[in-house]
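worker-03 picked up job from queue 'complexes'. Input manifest follows; three sequence lines, order preserved.
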Amino acid sequence: MESGVKRMSAYKIIALVILVILAILFAFPLYWIVTGAFKTQASINSTTPEWFPSVWVLDNFRKLFSRQMAPLWEFAVPFSSHFSSTGEDIIFSAGPMVPAAIRWLVNTVFMAVAAMVLTCITAAMAGYALAKKRFKGRALLFSLIVCAMALPKQVILIPLLREMSSLSLYNTIWAVILPTVGWPFGVFLMKQFSEGIPGELMESARIDGAGEIKTFTNIVIPMVKPGIGALAIFTFINSWNDYFMQLIMLSSTSKLTISLGIAKLQAENSTDFGLIMAGATLAAIPIIVIFIAFQKYFTQGITMGAVKG
Amino acid sequence: MKASAGTARSRVLARRETRSAYLFLLPSLIFFVGFVIVPMVMCVITSFFDSTMGKDTVDVFIGVQNYVELWKDSIFLRSLKNTFLIVIVSVPLTCIFSLWVASVIYNLRGPVLSTFRCIFYLPVVTGSVAVTVVWKWMFNNYYGIFNYVGKGLGLLDKNINWLGDERFALWCIILILLTTSVGQPIVLYVSALGNVDPSLVEAAEVDGANNFQAFWKIKWPSIMPTTLYILVITTINSFQCFALIQLLTSGGPNHSTDTVMYYIYYTAFKMYRYGYANAMGVVLAIFIAVLSAVQFKLAKEK
Amino acid sequence: MKRKKILALGLAMTMAMSLAACGNTADKETKAPETQASGESETAGAQNDETASADGESTSITLWTYPIGNWGNSETVDGLIASFNEAHPEIKVSVEYLDYTNGDDQVNTAIEGGQAPDLIMEGPERLVANWGAKGYMVDLTEFFEADSASDIHESAKAACQAADGAYYEYPLCMVAHCMAINERIFEEADALQYVDTENHTWTTENFFKAVQAIYDSGHQDVTAVYCNGQGGDQGTRALINNLYSSTFTNPEHTEYTVNTPENIKALEELAAQDGVNFDASLVGGDEITLFRNGTLAMSLCWNAAQQTNSEMGEAGKTINGDNIIPMLFPSDDGKTELCGGIWGFGIFNNGDDAKIAAAKTFIDFICNDETQVVESVKASTYFPAHQDLKGIYDGTEIADVMSTFSEYFMPSMGDYYQVVPGWATARTEWWNMLQRIGTGGDAATEVETFVTNANAAVTAEQ
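worker-03 finished. Artifact:
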């Protein structure tokens, strides 16, 4: 026993040392992004890297913010481009002009939140039906969902582009949101979750005279809440990172997302790493702050999803 | 009489159940059918045509010619190989790595644990594009940090063009993919390991099992569901690694980092061959569907 | 019961389908009058200017520009549009800026997405040979028939004409792409002896000697044959074609002819030469940065706009303050043929006559208005496509540099071959070929593969 503990701690110490090194390596890219954003052009391009900026400058941010401007928000009448005199969407509310990069952040948050909310609602309903209802076509539908779950969107790139074009949704943030919602992983996850709801609970609700909707909102939703949390986080992060759909669906400066914006920055100023890092900092910091502030909920949400999954 | 009345009633009930099931499914189905199934069907149809970009071009039906050509296209075969190489390497590696990290940190004190967990999760929340651009800089041939450190430590004689060299480019991509995908599995494993009943482990140790045996006999089976879930999400993640390739190498050098996902995009918008790109999509979709089905079957058996 | 269930599923399906189908028919409806419209606009073309301003109704158009000098800089472009709006307040122009890495993909997806821009600024290889040939552009013949076009350079005019006789671009400015060297690095390696800095020329033999000398002096990265993508590929083409005086296409622009012994020899020697990196992680823009920060001793992706660019420090100097000397590409027969750039505007036919008319008004103002055209060309820091427009840079701080370029470089402008059918495919094949040669592929074999694939694209497009 005694020696066992000792051996274990020896292994533990070595493991911890390795882990600390790994942790430094994992944190390094982020460190490099943030410090890079504040470095001078000369120190960025020097062949001898500057581990810590000797001078902190705001030039890169100044450059980033002075590039292009866009209104902070724009609300347009849906499909109004079809009947407006100029052929443009009719915009009934537009925010003050801000640097385009700020607008990209607003777009990204809107996109990720909308995708998250829509996915959670539709997937919770569908998952419940798939798990707890017996109906014809269930097996077929479920196999379709399983098979389509890992499907990369590149597969349907051209049809999807044409579909969005005919729905007049091309170059709107909805063209990115809707396919994300249609992606069946959420339904799969919620189905696995809903299977854990005890049948008796629902039976007793029914005996109490609760209708379908009431059963769903009062019994099912509270039971699958952890699952919804997991799905919400998963969808939010995935849609935040889903660069591909944004790349093919969005084109005007005021419609870009922050990921796409940085990618464009890189293409335009391929080696102006200071500017690119300033963009990357802007993209990373808000979500990292959110993550650290809500770390408890994040980890809870993620793990609760998996216990049943 | 009574029996038939019974079946009639159960039929009514069944009908009601079916109707309500579809009503619950409806919102989700609209999106799923509208933005996954319909495009997939269109994709299959177009894959039998010679379709290209152009205002006055007409798609010409060519049967399975696109599919025949696929198997002769060495770039496609290479990209198919790369796609599966990425999945086959990165999925198990992610699982093993994150399980190991989790096993080391799961019984540490609260703040230490959450610091580690947080750090390993950072690349996920930093955002794929932001992570990619910084790695591009670090891998840079002329003033990237890898070459500097490598030369400083005497590991390299001269600069290595990491992303521009066929021997390294794909492995660089797999490395970055790994750092962006271990975050969630670590969080999951930490909590799964924490949930293993300690009395079971103790009992095994009393019976003389060593650490490894205790792990293999007691912990591993009880974290199996978590492992399966991690396998699923990591597989999905590995198939989605488009940004890395587009931004770092554009499939090069010499198509050595092409994945089918990138090659579809390349064929469509650089070569203007829509029908051919769609045929590729169909083939990839079939592979992935089979893979997912197998994975799910396995999960169910457990 | 069964029927109901099928009905429910069918309903969901048809709902989604009809959404798509609906859109499709709407799409077709707009397409039908569109073809008529383009026919009309050809005849009505000349009066478009008046009609657009006369009816007083506002039109908004979108302009997408590639980074052509300062046409990629929003401050400059905003100024140009402001002066356009002084003359034509009824036309609102919104601008998007493209880059050479993803710009083409962006335009292509926009075309498929049904939202191509109204106006686009680039060169004939895209406007004429690609989108024009695919039927997306409006014929601009009327511009060339007008008096204002009488002094357009013949070579520019020829490049703007498609195989079917239509013009899909109206040129604004042009330049000859060249290369550049870092004077300090050359001096330190005692390699300036190989360079005729007076006439900006050198021979093939001296070029290789210079590369070797610099490499031997300890500066290992002399030049990069960049091939990560198509950005700046005119530089690699010009270098290879000029080393032993060969061609890229036949004079009729119907066939790719890279598989000549001269080109193969050039590629073999470049691949074997120390200090020449076939670098699959760079495109032209990256190479310029590396040249500017002193990493590379030469740039293959240079021109007048680069020489006068002061974004990264003093114009004509590297970041460390070394002198940059622009050079012609080395040639064995003393006659360098530079790759030209001819930039101008094209109009996408999006089926809206008012927008097409407004776009034409814009082009006419920017390229033909006597006072405006000076500013428009200056914004590009290139040379005007109008021959009679001379001395626009006189009195500016870049006057000397520009006169050097017009004296020593513009006369060497070679054949504008970038309008061969299948050009977009050939470009992609080109950098793929360079990657293969750079990783040890046999030059002769790889060039043959290039020619086969590129010529297949020619046939496919005809």
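worker-03 released lock.
Residues 73 and 95 of chain A are 5 Å apart (CA to CA).
Chain A touches chain C through 38 residues (CB under 8 Å).
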